[in-house]
Records
---
Amino acid sequence: MDIATIAGIALCIVLVCATIVMGGDPIMFINIPSACVVIGGAVGATLVRNPLASVIGTFSVVGKAFTTKAPLPDQLIPQVVEMAKTARKDLLALEKVEIDYGFLAKGIGMCVDGVKSDTIRAILETDMRATSNRHKRGQEVLEGMGQAAPAFGMIGTLIGLVQMLATLEDPSAIGPAMAVALLTTLYGALISNVVCLPLADKLKVRSSEEVLSMMVCLEGVIGIAQGSNPSSIDQQLKGFLAPKLRNAPGSATDEKEKSE
């Protein structure tokens, strides 16, 4: 579970609600027609811009903003190097190795089956591109909703202003009518800047992290399929890491330095 995403959204909601409560009666900030215009309009515009399957699929992609399913590269590298050592002794022994990460398990399975390295690379790269495209589609749907919500907030405000101008003969109704008109702009800004756009940005981060983990697995699997030296695989995969993580305790390089 990604605490940062949950904490960030909760912090925004708490601060906004606290400001509302400290400023007076919070009931005045609740208006069902305004919420319907903003939420319904944003969803409707999103359905016009995207296929229904893409919109529905976005909900499963959004879950990645709240979870960290893909293991980090620095966690994968020791596992890949250890499997490379096992493969040097007995490739078929990898069948008994438990692998939690599905992408890595798929690649190792093809190695054990004797699939050529070029074919393995082509299959895994196709998988990577498909995953990246799914994530990108989810990001685009959320960004579209983030753009539509403020626009429909403004539309709701204009509707409210028209209704307000129609009742100018009653000065006492102008203030409440103006407040209701402005609520749609508030709702649109909140939905866009607290939910949609931040989640779209978080999905970009999650997607780049997962693609990096896939690249580490891809190169590691190709090295195993080609029978490369485990130390060479370790050094190659560490090129994906930040310099301060490349000689972390427990790595193949670290063990070699200790033995020397």
---
Amino acid sequence: MRQTLTTVLPSAEPRPAAAGKTLRIKSLREAGLLLIIAALCVAMSFASPYFLTWDNVRAMLLSFAIEGIVVVGMTVLLIVGGIDLSVGSVVCLAMVITGKLFLLGWDPWSASLAAIAASAVVSALIGGCVTKIGLSHFIASLAFMVIVRGLCLAFTQGTPQSLFSLPAEFKFIGQGSVFGMPVVIVIFVFIVAASDFVLRRSVLMRKVFYTGSNEKAALYSGIRVDRVKFWVTVLCSALAGVAGVVYTARFGAATPTFGVGMELNVIAAAVIGGASLKGGSGTVFGAVLGLALLSVVTSSLILLDVSVYWQDVIKGLILLVAVTIDHWLNVRKAIR
């Protein structure tokens, strides 16, 4: 038995050369995305005089800043080999619970904490279905996407909640500015910077990569695979809950249909940024660049007066290219 374990253990950790090569590939992909975004910005500066105005840049930053909080959790979950289709519904649930409790007399801060806790409970149930029952993340999260959306409609009777009486200090989270910079963007930058640093440098986070790369080898090396998958799932929905609270503060309302399709945009951004659908690969910074690319493309299409229907087609094609590249890289890795 000892001999068997000895032969398995080395495969759980990447060799130095392989690890260096993986980091180089990630850096090249991120650099490539930066170049593409820069090229699009230069091209659009000639195509439309409004593209590089502060108002448009600010609108682009706000459009993906809150969604970027959700992207962080989704990226880590993809790295561990999972996926969560319920994040859009969970964002909506956090908004609805915050609004409902506030209208019942709760202070908005306590209501927000309760909403984030409820979001974590949803993911804990998903994680339980995956680790205890043996369902895949895809099936479990698909079921909860429908369940949670139904709860949002049931709690509100399908009617949007107006929260115009929210206190100014709470609205400041979504509408205020610090030295001219929207607070939403400050929160987003802090979460992204902290998450990217921890994911790249933390010894604890290596377990996430090992589990996603080779679950069986990770298990043999002493990593509690189910526990890792469970807590990463909880993290994903908890961050979706945080995003829902920030959305509530920004819009001063809770709409039971909010967030429909958000999960596809978030997954697309993570995959474009280098997160593998098969697990074991990805960076937070890369996923944010993927989301930034989608935001620039959307803004460009709007300014060029392209039909909203064609916008979805173009973004779908971008996702298809990203998934194809991911598949090609996985095939080459398997051959080597």
---
Amino acid sequence: MFERHLEEAAEVLAGARRVAVLTGAGISAESGVPTFRGKDGLWRKCKAESLATPEAFERDPALVWEWYDWRRSLIAPVEPNAGHRVLAGWEGLFGDFAVITQNVDGLHAKAGSRDIVELHGNIWKLRCTREGTVEEIRDTPLPRIPPICPSCGSLFRPHIVWFGESLDPVVLDRAYRISETCQVMFVIGTSSVVQPAATLPLAASRAGAKIIEVNIEPTPLTPQADYFFPGKAGEVLPALDRRLREKRPAAGIDRLPDRRS
């Protein structure tokens, strides 16, 4: 049945022009990024709820930055896996292709994806608390904690959506537009319980898109998905990619990009 569903999903994908992908912590966990949920989740080892808040930053910005600097050091050596690289390669196969991610690790960009909607921000980016400007700084460890905006001397904060904060409405609106206009939506490695991201596949389905879910275990979305592939993205997506490329040869693309250098 698994092989038959792969073949059917590849057929659906081969006929699509507008494809969207929603990813969660599961795809990054395959690369070794610590997750915040599950039995070994980082949430259980650190009191993140007391650190990832505006109140915590106002109370002790150095402590908050020490925690984020530690997280950045864990993520820095991590490389994208085969699932990330397949998604990056698919940008050249479709007229309209975008990745919407709940992850903040930057692995989709590291794999070569360009059209990325980061719902929850990016751990490598810092935002000035006065001017709102955003800079990307990949130094680990950071040369100064807490970091200071070179333009105005105000504190930088992590460019992350914290507990108690709303998502950027511009970012969220774009995510909904992509979801509501795609023909196929992949939902990969997400628990499908975190809002508002969990509503995006439902919006896509209501607009007529086929939903293809890839996860190591069923989620609340699974009964509504057109196809559910139990397994790792790094294994399922390459298998699907091989079938897709047999049906729809890449225009000028002979192999997946290797962005590890």
---
Amino acid sequence: MQSRLIKTNTTTQHVWEAGSGPLVVFCHGFPELGWSWRHQVEAVAAAGFHAVAPDMRGYGGTDAPQGVEAYGVLNLVGDMVALVQALGETEAVVVGHDWGAPVAWACALLRPDMFRAVACLSVPFNPRRANRPPIPTFRAMAKAMGKDFYMLRFQEPDAEVEFAADVEKGLTTAFWSYDGATPDDRRGSGFLEPGVSFLGAMGEGATRPPWMSAEDLKVYVDAFTAKGFTGPINWYRNMDRNWELGAFHQDKTVSVPALFMVGENDPVRGYSGSGEAELEQWVPDLRGKIVVPGAGHWLQQERPEVVNEALIGFLKGL
């Protein structure tokens, strides 16, 4: 696996890549990097594909434009289109995890001519719902529970401050709190007690998950220390704007072949469960829907062998 900078017509992107053959592009989520796909890049390359995992817009070695509106999903899809073109290709399979999953689903939804198949981890496809912008929906859900929700906190102008105050502690806590190996009574849910911060809700005692080496953690800490958290959290600040700009694909289904995987203990299932239950309705060529026993949110790092086997089988079956 090698790294390099690729200048596209939207941003200069830092990527990890290996192999040659049909192109497979990997989109990471929050708070991660292209490095999060290290196990898949090498395995997919060894299986006969050109695997490319960029640091997404605002992360790591990729450009971080100024302004909240620069981080809308249409910008992010545009980055992936531009990356495919800069690599000299006309089509690719797109793979996404966490926030990278909505980007990957949107790539397949909006540019099926380029993105010939899609595989997503953790976050299922959620179609645009009429009169249901996401932030008011989450606010109503949280209010009914007497709690706050972390995505609501991320709308606040100083949401990144608690992460930036101690980058290593913030990242360690975030990874630990959504990990499958964390005890059930300590694992985060996304819902917070009023007045308690996102990291404060996890309490003390967070440690590196068993799948993350000290060297891996340092890659993340160095990247976020250098770049900060404003760009990544701006993705969340565009959620309602994404809904407003998405009316043109209301009720549209994902037409390309698809694969979905999720950890059994992934907290995201607690607030995206309807999307998982309705996946076959909105993704008619769904070729796999896999729940990994005992796994949490960071599926491709927690269970790389399981993910690699399913992903390579999906790719070779296209």
